[in-house]
Amino acid sequence: MQLQVKGKNMAVTDALFAHAEGRLERITKILPPWDDASSVELELSVERNPKIERPQVAEITVRTKGPVLRVRESAPDMYQAIDTAAKKLERQARRYRERRKEHRRPGAPSLPELPPDLVEAPLPVETAPKLVKSKRFSLHAMSPEEAALNMDLLHHDFYVFRDEESGEVSVVYRRKDGDYGLIAPE
Questions:
Q1: Is 148 found in the same domain as 97?
Q2: For residue 27, is it within any domain?
Q3: Cα–Cα distance between 120 and 92 in angstroms, integer?
Q4: pLDDT tens column, 52-108
Q5: Is residue 125 part of a domain?
Q6: Cα dist. 107→73, 100, 110 in Å?
Q7: Contact of 24 with 60, CB cutoff 8 Å
């Protein structure tokens, strides 16, 4: 595993690097042997806004031969953020491993069992999320800029509208960096 640690608005100390390396070492043991993570990127950052309760952010990206596994966690302490993100990433890696085990082609070599220290206790059966509220509204034709303005006026994180150029239903949403995004059908 090749670990790359980047710091944004902060310096990465040797202690932080060693802690991250120790926590992320388990990921390579969980992933299937033929799908070893070629690169693991950890980006550590500190939010400068004093109103944010959990300013320490750890973002981990693992590139495998299959999907890209990505986790973002924040906490009051950087070590805690790394630990929480690593736990989430381990769950994602286990799910990916189980999916690969279920969907492997006939005649392919079977996956070796995980060592007992890496096996997670089975999760309680979760009930499926249920629809608790339904809302209907008319879609007005407008530009994405007008939709973003309406979204701000309503203090919502997204706004559904009919694009006046294409006539298609589109969504404008607020991104974490404060800018806006547009989702439109092809």
A1: no
A2: yes
A3: 12
A4: 777 888 999 888 777 788 899 988 888 999 999 999 988 888 887 777 665 555 565
A5: no
A6: 40, 14, 9
A7: yes
